[in-house]
Structure of Orotidine 5'-phosphate decarboxylase:
Amino acid sequence: MPEPISPRDRLIVALDMASTDEAERLIARIGDAASFYKIGYRLGYAGGLALAERLVRDGHKVFLDLKLHDIGNTVEEGVQSLAGIGATFLTVHAYPQTMRAAAAGRDKAGTGLKILGVTVLTSYDDADAREAGYASSVADLVAARAAAAGAIGIDGIVCSAAEAPQVRAILGPDRLIVTPGIRPAGAEIGDQKRVVTPAEAMRAGVDHVVVGRPITGAADPRDVARRIVDEMAAAL
Ligand code: C5P
């Protein structure tokens, strides 16, 4: 069985802001209520990788949500460079060739970086998949890519809580499931179409929840982060 994860380490706060100054102000306000931060395209391309190094140095965990996808050699070398930052998670699109290359880069770097596969973006429905040239439904693509991720030795999958039970059945207990689209009861849902609460995510077998605007836009981000952690602790 995998190592138990503390409720606080299960919360990943998405730093979807435009500047590292803004991100650092938020992190200071959250204090010890959270320990894990996600950096995506917006902040990553605006000084976020240097911020990631500072966060790791300060004892935080970092999720680099850069969703890599390129020829194998480029992915493998990119993963090796990113591994030097000391991040905990890095996303790649769950194409078998890309996942194999990412796993090779991870193993060569040996820093403990874990690779997460993004099966099918949650903004895609069956019509979008058809338009992109796929003959399979989104559900079938998710299942096929999760199975490939497991066989290749990817460390986990990013998926919706709705997909988590299906993905867990494919991956078994030893891989991680990381889920965005989380809203504490009563929060604005924003542009997320299907949302679940932190407690529901735990019951669906999710290991880590990614929460952005309910924390980053809150009057008291520390309090919201605390409540989410407490809600997960109670559900476990
Ligand atoms: O603000 P919110 O809680 O909706 O932020 C969710 C975070 O998770 C954002 O960084 C978003 O890019 C990311 N994400 C998502 N859905 C996915 C994959 C990532 O919302 N399928």
Summary: The mean pLDDT is 95. Residues 7-235 form a domain with the TIM Barrel fold (CATH 3.20.20.70). The chain is about 45% helix and 15% strand.
